[in-house]
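QA checklist item 7 of 12: single-chain prediction sanity check.
[x] sequence parsed
[x] length recorded as 406
[x] structure emitted
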Amino acid sequence: MMFGMAMLSACSDSMSDSPDASQRMVDLHLMVSLNNPGADAVARSSSYPIGQQPDGYPFGFEDAATVYEGINTLRVIVVNVGNVVEGNKCYGYPDRVPQPGDLFGEYIFRVIGGETKRIYVIANEASIHPAVDWEGSYAKGATLTPAAAADLQMASQWTSTHEASPYIDNTGSTRSYIPMSEYFDIPIADASSYGDGQQPIQSETLFVTRSTVKFAFYIDSDNTISTESFRFAEIAISGLAEKQYLFPCNTTYSPAKYPLNVNSDGRVITTYTTPPSLTTAPYVFTPVDFGYNAGGASSSTYTKAYAPQLYFLESPVPTGGDGYQLTAKVEIDNNPEPVEFGPVALPNLPSLPRNTFVKVYFSFTGYTINCEVKVVPYVEIALDPDYGSFGPGQDSPIISWPSGNN
């Protein structure tokens, strides 16, 4: 069921609703949804090659995990064909884990009709760094060109060029809302087609896409090392980027972005562009109690799931043909030194666009680690060729994150 989310407060309203007497104006009514799945989204695997799923293929999605993956503030900026800002509004919303069908708004702008508007949507702007002065730099009457908007970037605050850092770390007491963004080109009706005394109204529903990537790790306890207990001391993922474009760049979706009134939820990113000359590096996860059978079955203190609230930026496809790599250090029984596994290639993780949730499942054959990656929006296969892949009709969970792009 769709409904408008109640607004908590206005963080700005730079839009004057005074019409220009020389032109007929149109009241543009905008609602905004998350790129979330519909309530009837189906989780399944696929036998189709990457990027070749047919239109309408029912990818699975995962809902938001916390309120920080929802919308705290939402700004909408309307720009005319002359690159002049016609309206800029921002509202705040109460904390809520978003649900399929939630709509935010309604934003009402009185704009000149008969031309195409570029509309920017930015959620949780306080979490964007370097910070952008949305209120001062892009007030009504200011200039905002497509090139200037496309050049805006988000950057992680790395302490080393050799090891990645999360863009947002919500594992402690200080937490941030996940930034989201999109832009749209919307043709506005010619107001002259309406009769005298009629105020033209045009309604559109837009969406925003979460700007980050997150990971989770799981142990297959039915296929483990033949030992009493083990613990993951480190898990490293290579190829994570230090920066990305703020707005999706050269991004295509399945289903397509337009028309807006068809399949507006649950879009999957299929291609995207990252900034040139960016740095990539591995990030080392350091779980505390992620393991199996600590102290024996009767006194287990380990957990078989590790899903830290760490968020990274979308990253380019690695060059060189090896793709993303995973390396793990595992403490086994009472061995004095951890056993290092990998690097293991992740061939079913072809890219890391924003709004993606990667789930890695570990199992062991003797002292050989096996990883199965379930990643949305992509299909899942076993990394070890001996384990085969899912064939037609063999459904198995596959996750996308909207974050609940997933």
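[x] summary fact logged: The longest strand covers residues 230-241.
[ ] second reviewer sign-off
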